[in-house]
Amino acid sequence: MMHNTVSLIKNHFPVILLLFFLGLATACEDQASCVSDNTNYVQVSFYKIDTTGTGNVPDTYQNVSFYTENGEPLRTQENELLLDTSLSSFPVPLNPSADQTAVILQQDNVSDTLYFTYNREQLVISPECGVEQRFYNLGISRKTLDSVRVLKADISSVNQPHVGIYTCRYTLDDTLRLSFYKFDPTDTVPPLTSNRDTINVLSVTNDRGVVLLQPADSVSGIKLPVYADAAQIGLNFTYTRLADDTVRTGSVVFGYRKTENLLISNTSCLPQTRYDQLELESKAAFDSVIFQNTSLDQNNAENARIFFE
């Protein structure tokens, strides 16, 4: 009998081997069929509302804490407490026994509450795998943040944001930022690599006779407000160079566009005045003016470089 068994195995070994691997594949397929992408975690991400036309970008909240409706600290999936932390996104575990989950955000002495609403349904995966609960039709109610939007209503993966919180963090302003440079004739035209220059300002006035800057020693740049009721501003400089005490004068006129800007609708953010399309109208006694940024924005270190002869 043993001889017959061995002979059978030898004669049918390829078939037996194939059946073995088919059995493994079937077992793996049955096991894989029990895997689901559904989750009870909502991923919330922070975004900064764009005021420059380049698109909304991820934002980071500093020193913020998260609590459940009962006042308990919120925990991540790795069981880490979300207390006094800085992050750009956070997970919210949904209550599987209710159609609403509340989360409290607290930063310094300011707090806000988000109410997540959703529908639940029980789904049978298979007789072997059992039942899972699916969350769908996600919504937000009674929020007072600047803007909260549902990005994905069906909660099927925690690796992508389901909710976006958009914050009003304005950066545009009315300040023209000028830097002084010494013209180097060996540079190509327009000059871009000349060294920073320093002058002694005696006075800077605008074309309406308003004194914008009183005497100040050794300045390499100035910040000046533009007009809110005009499309250009003229500046008159009286100064001396460090190389000598000769009093010099120069003038420059900048043109610009003013618009009321709000790129995100349905928010509580206030409209913001935007000054852009900065351009040179005229100049006198200066070698050249090169623009670095044509929008007036706090994030811009320089709007224009003035090159002295």
SSE diagram, text form:
Layout: H1 2-11, H2 13-32, E1 41-48, E2 57-58, E3 61-68, E4 85-87, E5 89-93, E6 100-107, E7 110-126, E8 130-141, E9 147-150, E10 163-167, E11 175-182, E12 199-206, E13 211-213, E14 216-219, E15 221-225, E16 232-241, E17 247-261, E18 272-284, E19 286-291, E20 304-308
Parallel strand pairs: 1-10, 11-20
Antiparallel strand pairs: 1-2, 1-5, 3-4, 3-6, 6-7, 7-8, 9-10, 11-15, 12-13, 12-14, 12-16, 16-17, 17-18, 19-20
Tally of helical segments: 2
Order of helices and strands: HHEEEEEEEEEEEEEEEEEEEE
What share of residues is helical? under 10%
Distance between the termini: 109 Å
Instruction: Give the overall pLDDT as a whole number.
Output: 79
Structural class: mainly beta
Please explain how this structure is put together.
The protein has 309 residues and is mainly beta. The chain folds into 2 domains: 41-167, no CATH class; 175-308, no CATH class. Helix content is 10%, strand content 48%. It is built from 2 helices and 20 strands. The protein has helices spanning 2-11, 13-32, and strands at residues 41-48, 57-58, 61-68, 85-87, 89-93, 100-107, 110-126, 130-141, 147-150, 163-167, 175-182, 199-206, 211-213, 216-219, 221-225, 232-241, 247-261, 272-284, 286-291, 304-308. The strands form 4 sheets. Strands 12, 13, 14, 16, 17 and 18 form a 6-stranded antiparallel β-sheet that branches. Strands 1, 2, 5, 9 and 10 form a 5-stranded mixed β-sheet that branches. A hairpin with a 4-residue loop joins strand 12 and strand 13 (211-213). The longest helix is centred in the first third of the chain and has 20 residues, at 13-32. The radius of gyration is 33 Å and the shape is elongated. The protein starts with a helix and ends with a strand. 15% of the residues are buried. Mean pLDDT is 79; it is low at 1-6, 12-32 and 262-266.
